[in-house]
Amino acid sequence: MILAIDLMDETNEVTEEAQQLVESILHFAAKKEKIEEDTELSVTFVGNERIREINKEYRHKDSATDVISFALEEMGEDEIEIIGGEMPRMLGDIIISIERTKEQAEEYGHSFDRELGFLALHGFLHLLGYDHMNEEEEKEMFTKQKEILEEYGLSRKG
Description:
By secondary structure, the protein is α/β, with parallel strands linked by helices. It contains five helices and four strands; from the N terminus they run E-H-E-H-E-E-H-H-H. It has a single domain, classed as 3-Layer(aba) Sandwich (Collagenase (Catalytic Domain)), CATH 3.40.390.30. Helix 1 links the parallel strand 1 and strand 2. Helix 1 crosses helix 4, helix 3 crosses helix 4 and helix 4 packs across helix 5. The chain has a four-stranded mixed beta sheet with strand order 1-2-4-3. The two termini are 27 Å apart. The chain is globular. 47% of the residues lie in helices and 18% in strands.
């Protein structure tokens, strides 16, 4: 298996089917992006209050957001890259607000599953280094997102 995904549901609201959807779309995206074997990541489902705390602490934004990613492979200043050894590749953590997922699904007029799959994929692409800080990056990331979602079968209508 390419990805080892550690799923945690702090809300106790995410169904087994929804968790399987997240795993499935992340495995699909990992194949599309040619991620190497034995790559690990975690996905945590939280409420708005918890994601607001995380957003405030790490991004200095005092508001609930839909998804936050923490990539473990980004080299910070003064960090030394560790090379070698047979350690699995750890991409990082994706944190998804289930409350925001429900709100946005309703707002955009599509299913909870479609929004959850979108947010999981969006967080995953961030872990791979995609971003949307400028127009060019945004176009690349959002095009990739749309292609993967449509090929997977979770288009906007889903």
